[in-house]
Here is the input.
Amino acid sequence: MPEGDTVWLTARRLHTALAGKLLTRCDLRVPRLATADLTGRTLLDVTPRGKHLLTRVEGGLTLHSHLQMDGAWRLYAPDERWSGGPGHQIRAILATTTHTAVGYRLPVLDLIRTIDEPSVVGHLGPDLLGPDWDAEEAVRRVCADPARPLGEALLDQRNLAGIGNVYKCELAFMARVTPWLPVGDLPPGVPERLVSTAHRLLEANKERFDRRTILTTDRPDRKLYVYGRKNQPCYRCGTPVRRKEETGRDRISYWCPGCQSGPAPSN
Here is the structure.
């Protein structure tokens, strides 16, 4: 599941493979971009911003993409078979003489002027993996609405950019509270520790796609505390982990009712 660390690593791999090279092919398979062609332009850089990818090309243009739940960019050598999904899921193809980047299932794909990037990412809060990271500002934004449930506050990219469902659930578990506890009910110092832990976890995972939040062991069977572990025993207290789908696939919560205090959903 793409979160800020996945997007950061995706951007780095795309940048390493494509930056500074001439595009020999550009195929953007969304109706509004059907006539757009960046072939012959130099790809300048690929920059992550929270969960957004900004692919800048010569001439002051930026290809903006967002992976959301299922999107992915894959890199292939010229003679390599594309294996990221069926052809009808391809939304973008960017090729140079050495690599081809293929965007699968991209729910957001826009071509904008580079100077207009603030229109798509200007609303974001401090980026957990960005040069603008500001822990104090992130804490201030998370705590700005005391009545708001913690999970919602953490997922709001206007508060801090880069957290998705996995980190939301894991952070709540590590803080020993449920995702539905109002932010204002957190014990003193916990918001600061949550933000600090979020930054530490994303930094620890940004170099790998195999994400883990349990950093005290390398056991392959113990990577995450609660996420994806429905009905399995909590590593802390043994209580079966529970799962709740709140408003569709983008709002899934896992938690341990035995050691996480605070409100829980009614069903």
In short: DSSP finds six helices and eleven strands in the chain. The mean pLDDT is 94. Helices lie at 4-18, 118-121, 135-142, 150-155, 165-174, 190-205. The first helix runs from residue 4 to 18.
